[in-house]
Amino acid sequence: MTLIATLPATRTTGAPDHRAPAPAAILTGRGLEKRFGGTEALRGIDFSLSRGEIVAIMGPSGSGKSTLLHCLAGILTPDGGTVEFDGRRIDALGEAERTRLRRTAFGFVFQFGQLVPELTAMENVALPLLLDGVRRTHAEGRAAEWFPRLRLDGLEGRRPGDMSGGQAQRVAVARALVGDPSVLFADEPTGSLDSLAGEHVMELLTAAARSAGASVVIVTHEARVAAYAHREVIVRDGRSSGPVAA
Q1: Structure letter (DSSP) for residue 153
Q2: pLDDT tens digits, residue range 120-177?
């Protein structure tokens, strides 16, 4: 039986204090296995995320932590095990259904933001709503609410190439949260930033997620980033050990 390690997150100076999350699980993975050719990336991992909880998945490069996130988010289909979101199995869904789920219930922040370079910051933030059929005026109205919340006032008309790395990553956070997702997935969200910009992004990301009522899964190898989580899950060589939940 494979279990998951959960360690108390070590607070860094200035990191926010968190209240205990609600116990009800919104996302679970059971016995997850994933192979790429002859390489076993995941070897029977269990995972549980409570409503309102922030969990950091930690481990060295190549340990399987990003693969675990991608399986939990429906980006990859596991070769073994199950993934349930809000009581519904998602690993058995077709690609079209999983795509819609990712667009409506999940939000994503990646290491390099992955903003569309030809679009303005406003258009990038509104994009998930537009893809879901929301009218442009309404989509941009909802997008505009996120600019002051993430200290992006005045950047609405700028394109990614005209922003700093920290500004662009905060635009990516706004884009991830504009659709009111239940779960925010952040894969090395500060990996391309210096320490000061990274701290700023994490403070705003976690505060914005809490205000939006989103649970958060963060993949990181940095202790200062994991300090913003309620608990840590340690992954090594596709395996982990310890209790499934806090």
Answers
A1: T
A2: 999 999 999 999 999 999 999 999 999 999 999 999 999 999 999 999 999 999 999 9
Residue 102: CB partners within 8 Å, gap ≥ 6? 73, 74, 75, 108
Largest CA distance in the chain: 53
Give the length of the chain. Answer: 246
- Residue-wise pLDDT for 194-239, tens only, equals 989 999 999 999 999 999 999 999 999 899 999 999 999 999 888 8
Q: 18: which residues sit within 8 A by CB, 6+ positions away?
A: 54, 230
* Amino acid symbol at 237: D
Over the stretch 102-125, which tens digit does the pLDDT of each residue have?
989 999 998 876 899 999 999 999
In this prediction, residues 50-59 reach a mean pLDDT of 95
Residues whose CB falls within 8 Å of the CB of residue 169, separated by 6 or more in sequence, listed in order: 109, 113, 189, 190, 192, 193, 197, 201
CA–CA distance, 144 with 136 (Å, rounded to integer) = 12
**What's the rounded Cα separation, in Å, for the pair 101 and 141?**
23
The amino acid occupying position 108 is F
Question: Given this model, what pLDDT does residue 111 score?
Answer: 83
